[in-house]
Every structure is written in C-alpha cells, then in structure tokens.
Design goal:
Oligomer: single chain
Strand content: 15-25%
Number of domains: 3
Helix content: 25-40%
Largest sheet: 5 strands, parallel
CATH class of the largest domain: Alpha Beta
Shape: globular
Strand order of the largest sheet: 6-7-10-5-11
Radius of gyration: 25 Å
Number of strands: 18
Distance between the termini: 34 Å
CATH topology of the largest domain: Rossmann fold
Structural class: alpha/beta
Number of helices: 16
CATH architecture of the largest domain: 3-Layer(aba) Sandwich
C-alpha cells in the first residue's frame, strides 16, 4: 500500500503506508511544514509541503488510543505543542488516511455486469422491498426493532435527496447502537459511506470539496462528533461548509469549502443533546425492554450453538443502492396531510415526516411514475408505509423531552395516579434504569415531582400544559388506501426469485 502525507496545523505527518486495522503499526515521520517555526498551531487546512528541520520518527498503531497518546506526548515535547492538540491532530490524520484508503479501494467506478444489474433490479421492483431490507438486517445479526430498522434504512437512502434526513440513535450502553450502524454499512456501497469514530472541528474541511456529497456520514458515538457540532449543523442546514484560512502564518487566506448534502447517523446514551442538533435529526430510540433483550439473547445463543443464519447477498443490496438515482420527489397529496401543531418544535417534525415519504418514494423509484419534469411522484402507499412507522412516536413526541421522557410524561398523565419507578418501567416495558432516567429528566424539567419520602418513591405530574392540541396524523384511508400495510415483522422467505446460478438455498435476497 502506498504512503500518505498531510499537513495539520503546521506539522507534516508522513506515513510509510496507509494504516489498516489488520496491520500492526505504521511508521510516522513528523516535522515542521515548510515556513513553520513551531509554537502556536496554525489555521487549517493546508496542502502538503516540503517539511523542514529535524524529524521525529516512530512506529505507531493509529487505531490504538494508548499508542496515539504516547506518540502525541513525544510530538508535543519535540515541537513545543500541547499534547491534547497533537492527540486531536493524530485523530484527524487517521480520518484522512482512512478516507484515502477508501478512495483508493473504490477509485474506479463499480461496473455492474448484466447479471448483477438484473438481480439488483429484481430487488428494487419488489413491493416488500423495505421489509426485505429489515429481514436482511435481522439475518446480519440485528434482531427485533422492526420500525427502527426500517426508519434507519430510509434515512440512509435519503442521502440521494436534495435535503437528506439524519438520525440520532438513543439507547443505554450495549443496546445495539453500534450494531445497527454496522449492518447499515454492510448494506450500502462502500463508496457511499464515511464511517468515523471521531470527528474534529476541522475534519470536514479536509474531506475535499465533493468527498461527502450525497454520502452517509456515520459517527459511532455522538460524543465523538461533539467538537464538530457547529460544522455539522451548518452542513446539514445549508448543504455546504466554508472556512477561510491561511495555509501558513502570514500567508494569504483562501476559502476551503466542502459540499453536501449528507445524511448523518450517530448513536448516544445521553438525553442531553444540543437542541439545535435534535431539531435536525430523527430521534430513534432503541428498545431496552425485556422482550427485546430476550430476542437478542436468543440470537446470541443460536450463534454460539453454531446454528446457521440465512446468508445475505450483500453485493446485491449494495448494487441496488448503486442503481438508485438522485431524483426530486413531489408529494401531490401533501396539502391534505396533518401533523401536530403544538409548538415550533412541530415545524421540523412536519418536515421530517415529508422527508420520510420522499425517501420511501426514492427507494421505490423503480415502481413509481414521474411527472413531465422527471420528478418522482409519491403515492398514498408511500405515506401509509411511513405512517405505520412513525404514528406511535408522533403520539408521544413532546418538545424538549427525550423520547423516553415524553412517553413517561404521557403514561403519568393517562394513569391519573402517581407511579413508582418500577411501576413506570412495567407500563413502559422498560428496564428499571430507563424509567429512572426518564423520571429524573421530568423532575429536572419541572414537569414532575417526587411525592414525600416514603419508599418506594412515587412521582406525579405538576405541569400538564404539553398535552394541548391534536397529536394525530392523517389516517391513510382518507387518501384512499384500502388496506393497512402488513404488520411490522420480518418477512418469511416465501415469495422468492427463481434459482440463479451461484445462488445457494438459505440466502436472503
């Protein structure tokens, strides 16, 4: 694998080869970039220039935090920099190197053979396409969560829209956030995904002008993107991001621009997320209840018992996504739809609903008509599918509250009596700690209070003003949909394609 070099804030980092998680360590040489004199860090980004002065050379495992930390301390001592700043620079070098590796692997456009194209088109022409996607995710190891899986797949498909959707996955530790992102990555073409573990404020600018256009950016944990909050919000809202900076001290500043649009997916265990970020993302809450836990445990036992799972034709799913065109979508019946109009929070909620309908239409573009301008025309069936996925969430959605706290608020309101943490957990189908966190949030927001000092403690609402207004969506039957969509369960491998050479029994389309 060829070498790689870049300049970050006045230091040139030269790698003998692009790092790989499978390899052990990479030889890195660090020196001052041409024209640098050490001291304070200079503005990003900068082209690679001839380095000057003495070099620090060492072998580093860039995928190991301990190895990066040790090397950062050496670099800081050699060049008079702050160790934490250098540690961030190394994370940025890793980001850039991983992108370079991905681009090298997908530099040539993937050419689909007639057979690969035919098989992908068969998938795109299935009426149960979204259900099949959920089934594939189940076979890949992400069991249960029928609505969340479908919504997440629509979000990543929306990357091809002019205004894509984004999503934050809320769940306690070990509830499947990373697993969901991983299976989504497997179903998408590698050239359409940027998977990052950490995102620094300058990282987006180093991506290149068109490196992120119509791509899915996945950050494993939202805390890894916290430093880049403002940059992400700007890129999500405006579709582009510009920074004016000088490549070196005293130089002439010039603009560095990265273009979107992008679809962002990230996971978090915290309900304390920047409100501006939340307003731009779908909030997908993973289930940590007993039933979902039993499903996960059953899958774990089956895997350790050596039970075979259906194989997923990943190439076929990736090819299907490659064949999707980036098209404009019109929703002829949009003026007839309803969405709660309680506060300004619902304005973005209404926009997300329309975005999901457009994403569903885009996914089913091989089964939809186009108008005289070449735009895809959404059908009531697209709305019915989305309605089934979001109606429960819209019912409990309340401004400024996490999804679980909003549901706790409604359960307290509907019950008409104070509830203990354990009672709330039972009614919500949650773990005890989930109920505890939801109640703590309501108390912090001054919406509920703990009654007395008796044990077990019970909680009651003190403010019911969030319950005003209608929270019902338009029923699909009012648009002429005769029958509701099938229940949200994994499809059985009944209606399958005729056998194809090379296809083994037990494979999932």
């Amino acid at each position: 694998m060829e070498g790689f070099a870049c300049v970050v804030e006045g230091l040139e980092y030269a790698l003998d080869e692009l790092p790989s998680p499978a390899a052990s360590k990479t030889v890195i040489a660090v020196a001052l970039a041409s024209g640098e004199v050490g001291g304070e860090a200079t503005p990003p980004p900068a082209p690679v220039e001839a380095a000057t002065g003495p070099r620090l050379v060492d072998r580093v495992d860039l995928f190991s935090f301990r190895s990066r930390l040790r090397f950062a301390q050496l670099v800081a001592g050699q060049f008079g920099r702050d160790p934490d700043t250098v540690l961030g620079q190394l994370a940025l070098v890793l980001d850039k190197a991983e992108r370079a590796r991905a681009q090298a692997q997908t530099q040539e456009q993937v050419e689909l053979t007639p057979d690969r194209k035919r098989r992908a088109l068969y998938l795109l022409r299935r009426r149960d396409l979204l259900t099949r996607a959920a089934e594939a995710m189940d076979a890949l190891g992400f069991v249960g969560e029928p609505a969340t899986k479908r919504l997440a797949y629509l979000v990543v498909t929306s990357r091809l829209l002019d205004r894509p959707l984004s999503a934050l996955l809320f769940a306690p530790t070990s509830s499947g956030k990373s697993e969901l992102l991983e299976v989504l990555t497997k179903l998408l073409p590698a050239e359409h995904v940027e998977f990052l573990s950490r995102l620094t404020p300058q990282a987006l600018f180093y991506a290149g002008p068109n490196a992120l256009r119509h791509k899915v950016v996945m950050v494993d944990e939202h805390v890894g993107a916290k430093e880049a909050d403002y940059s992400l919000r700007t890129l999500l809202s405006r579709g582009s991001l510009t920074l004016r900076a000088s490549p070196k001290p005293g130089g002439v500043s010039r603009p560095f621009t990265v273009y979107g649009p992008i679809s962002l997916l990230s996971g978090t265990t915290s309900s304390a997320i920047n409100e501006e970020n939340l307003s731009r993302c779908l909030e997908l809450t993973l289930d940590d209840g007993a039933r979902q836990t039993a499903l996960v445990q059953e899958a774990q036992r089956a895997r350790w018992a050596g039970e075979a799972r259906p194989e997923v034709e990943l190439e076929r799913w990736q090819d299907a996504q490659r064949l999707l065109d980036s098209l404009e979508v019109v929703i002829p019946f949009a003026s007839r739809l309803r969405f709660p109009a309680r506060t300004s929070h619902d304005r973005r909620g209404n926009q997300k609903l329309l975005g999901l309908i457009a994403a569903h239409t885009l996914l089913y573009q091989r089964q939809r008509q186009r108008d005289e301008h070449g735009r895809l025309i959404a059908t009531p069936a697209d709305y019915a599918a989305v309605h089934q996925l979001v109606r429960a969430a819209v019912r409990v959605d309340l401004e400024c509250l996490s999804p679980k706290a909003a549901q706790a608020y409604r359960l307290l309101a509907q019950g008409g009596r104070p509830l203990s943490r354990r009672e709330l957990a039972g009614q919500g189908g949650w773990a005890y700690n989930t109920a505890k966190k939801a109640l703590d949030e309501l108390v912090t927001q001054e919406l509920a209070r703990k009654l007395g000092a008796a044990s077990p403690a019970r909680y009651a609402l003190v403010d019911r003003t969030l319950l005003g207004g209608s929270n019902e969506l338009l029923d699909p039957t009012e648009l002429g949909v005769q029958a509701p969509p099938a229940p949200l369960e994994v499809a059985q491998p009944a209606e399958v394609e005729q056998p194809v050479a090379g296809r083994r029994s037990g494979q999932v389309a």
